[in-house]
Amino acid sequence: xxxxxxxxxxxxxxxxxxxxxxxxxxxxxxxxxxxxxxxxxxxxxxxxxxxxxxxxxxxxxxxxxxxxxxxxxxxxxxxxxxxxxxxxxxxxxxxxxxxxxxxxxxxxxxxxxxxxxxxxxxxxxxxxxxxxxxxxxxxxxxxxxxxxxxxxxxxxxxxxxxxxxxxxxxxxxxxxxxxxxxxxxxxxxxxxxxxxxxxxxxxxxxxxxxxxxxxxxxxxxxxxxxxxxxxxxxxxxxxxxxxxxxxxxxxxxxxx
Length: 256
What we know:
This protein is α+β, with helices and mostly antiparallel strands. It has helices at residues 9-12, 45-48, 50-53, 130-143, 147-153, 175-188, 248-255, and strands spanning 14-17, 22-29, 32-39, 62-68, 70-75, 80-83, 88-91, 95-100, 105-109, 154-162, 170-173, 194-202, 207-218, 221-234, 237-245.
């Protein structure tokens, strides 16, 4: 029988103080890891955290929930967003942020990258597996319906293996067949299907395991599910994609 693991964030967590205006607490219990951030009025990433990690732009992706306060996010391209109490967020790396108003912002973050947030010491060079970077490009292109980029990433004889019992299941061989599969997902969900990358792990030799969350709405029903794809590359091209599902029967029922 599996053991229940419990950790109290305030009691057992690692406290990381900002230069000023707050702190982050990092905790874990078994497979769960969470960061709770308290950002006091006057807090700004570029002045209160950036000097700790050696970057004026936050290079951590955030997946979380706002408990209190309002924070403004400014992406490196200048676009701005506000997050408020009750908001779920997925904030890509490459941004500054600051507290709006006189109320402290409290939020929790469950991103796989969040446990390195505001971690001091000598900044280590960030060098991402080049194949992981290609997979990230692929997910972005898929969600943006960027066919040109998708085609550029695939080998001519690419194969996407799809499990299950629906009409979509089977081995889709060649770029045209793979794109037809993606188009069918889009058509079945009236253009709402997404696959958002959660994390990606590479071996440095052309293999990447990507963990994602899919979402889509069909016949008035919205389904959110987890899955993964094992990518194989030759050179800079995807040659083989092996798809797996956390709840294959449920996903099949949704798409049938």
